[in-house]
Amino acid sequence: MTSVHEDLLESLRPTAFAIAYRMLGSVAEAEDVVQESLLRIHTTLEAGDRVQSPRAYVATVATRLSIDQLRSARARRESYVGEWLPEPLVSDVGSDPEHHAEIADSLSLAFLVLLESLSPEQRAVLLLRDVFDYGYDEIATIIAKTEDNTRQLATRARRHVEQRRPRFEASRRQRDELARQFFAAAQDGDLAALETLLAHDVVLHGDGGGNVPALARSLHGRRRVAQTLLAWARNGLERGGATVRQVDVNGQPGALMLDAAGGLVSVMALDIADGQVQGVSAIVNPDKLRHVGHTGDMRALLKRPSL
Predict the structure, then answer these.
(1) Nearest 5°: CA angle at 218, between 207 and 200?
(2) What's CA 303's distance to the chain center, in Å?
(3) How many CB atoms lie under 10 A from the CB of residue 44?
(4) What order of strands is seen across the sheet that includes strand 252-258?
């Protein structure tokens, strides 16, 4: 591979990953799509064929591969144990602030879960049009549909998600301060303080994938969610010796829970709007955490005797 081609492929990698991850909600599956997409354009270039727009080429390949992957993943998603949440993308608090506003909506766990209710083609059209700003003519070519069919897919997709689209706190400073208060109240075991931070209809989601203990279904309501969060904090922090480190998760405030040895046992993300926590998502399935860092043993953490 020539250095020119190497530089080009590296420049295309973020575009391919951005599309594939939003389509699939899986880092591992998205990386596979990225590798295959880049391999195909590399093979084309090495053969001496001209690629008029490498970005359009890789977007087309990544989208089509993601659609195929989603179709084959349907059965696995339907048989998944418990609630399914995407694999999280974790970054330090406050990193890349200019990029934050751009990614907050389209990368949030809540939005990616909402996309699960769409067909693969609807998901592709909605993302390519509303997130990546492709024209309908371009999208029609990518998904091999007519432009009229593409517009119809977009209309149906928007109608389906519009009323359930998650809302987020506009002010990053207010959002981060509320998150700080939330995690402080949880670690202090302060039920009253925690409840004041939660919306009345707050929802708690948990994803253990059948590998570790987790919620069987989502919990609703301020009191139930607050009590459950405090029970988790007591088990993990007080009894298990775990620690919490605040991070950004998919562009939203969140935290990592690390066991006494530094192993990652949980990633938690908050959906904050109107000055309150509207939703909490906790991912404890180790299969979805390995790309973030070395994973710990949640079961061992919960069995650890109190000091």
Answers:
(1) 130
(2) 29
(3) 15
(4) 90-91, 243-249, 252-258, 264-273, 276-283, 198-207, 219-220
What is the 3-class SS of the chain, one letter each residue? CCHHHHHHHHHHHHHHHHHHHHHHCCHHHHHHHHHHHHHHHHHHHHCCCCCCCHHHHHHHHHHHHHHHHHHHHHHHHHCCCCCCCCCCCEECCCCCHHHHHHHHHHHCHHHHHHHCCCCHHHHHHHHHHHHCCCCHHHHHHHHCCCHHHHHHHHHHHHHHHHCCCCCCCCCHHHHHHHHHHHHHHHHHCCHHHHHHHEEEEEEEEEECCCCCCCCCCCEECHHHHHHHHHHHHHHHHHHCCCEEEEEEECCEEEEEEECCCCCEEEEEEEEEECCEEEEEEEECCHHHCCCCCCECCHHHHHHCCCC
End-to-end CA gap in the chain:
58
Cβ contacts of 73 within 8 Å, gap of 6 or more: 24, 29
Sign of CA dihedral 32, 38, 40, 42: negative
- Please, are residues 61 and 41 in contact by the beta-carbon 8 Å criterion? yes
Q: Write down the residue that tokens 């301060």 correspond to.
A: 177
Name 247's bridge partners. Answer: 254
- Identify which of 254, 264, 269 has the alpha carbon closest to the alpha carbon of residue 288: 264
**Mean per-residue pLDDT pooled into runs of 10, the chain (307 residues):** 73 95 95 96 86 91 96 78 93 62 74 93 96 96 96 95 83 92 95 97 94 89 96 82 92 94 95 95 95 85 57
Q: pTM of this prediction? A: 0.90
